[in-house]
């Protein structure tokens, strides 16, 4: 049964398990065209998480700020097309969580190696916060931090395992969140890595 973290935030345990192998094969295809890279924040720090994108828009960061860009600045090409498998999975997960008709135009692909982390932040670079965000966890389990509306609010830890899908919408859409440093571990499909797919309607 869907686990509700709070209104709008729903964990679908194992929702992507049956497609995990196909999803990871698609990630391999995507990264052959748009390789994983470590982006630099506006503050000049290099992110420990490696990132790439597929879809019409890709999330990028550099010294000038964060933005969604139709062009991969590293290759000068469009981002790879979002596979039908990705679009269908995101739509079905959103529908299961009560957000029918979700049509993402951006898929950020995050790769965590041991020690990689994502500090507490909000996702505020999208045009319309009425659309939910769908995230798919693959490979090594991670500890997710779930905060409140203010950075200083108390956080909860939620383990996200291979195949888990989370939908964040409505009042949960602007919550602070992050990921603790990835432990040293091994997963048969990803080795030492965790892969996270984050689907958004950005444009
Ligand atoms: C909660 N990624 O890329 S996905 C990100 O596991 C990001 O790689 C994390 O946060 C990861 O921005 C977490 C889950 C997630 C994504 C967006 C959210 C949780 C969210 C937006 C609002 C609230
Ligand atoms: Fe985020």
Summed up:
The protein is of the alpha+beta class.
What sort of overall outline do the alpha carbons produce when their principal axes are compared? Answer: globular
The CATH fourth-level homologous superfamily: Alpha-ketoglutarate-dependent dioxygenase AlkB-like
Could you name the CATH topology? Answer: Jelly Rolls
CATH architecture level-2 label: Sandwich
In which order are the strands of the major sheet placed? 1-2-11-8-13-6-3
* Rounded mean pLDDT score: 96
Indicate the percent of residues in helices: 10-25%
CATH class: Mainly Beta
Explained architecture:
Helices cover about 15% and strands about 30% of the residues. It is an alpha+beta fold and about 200 residues long. The protein has a single domain (about 5-200), classed as Alpha-ketoglutarate-dependent dioxygenase AlkB-like (Jelly Rolls). It has a seven-stranded antiparallel sheet with strand order 1-2-11-8-13-6-3, covered by helices on one side. It has a four-stranded antiparallel sheet with strand order 7-12-9-10, with no helix packed on it. The N and C termini lie far apart (about 30 Å). The model has no long low-confidence stretch (mean pLDDT about 95). The structure holds N-(carboxycarbonyl)-S-(naphthalen-2-ylmethyl)-L-cysteine and fe (iii) ion. N-(carboxycarbonyl)-S-(naphthalen-2-ylmethyl)-L-cysteine binds next to strand 6, strand 8, strand 11, strand 12 and strand 13.
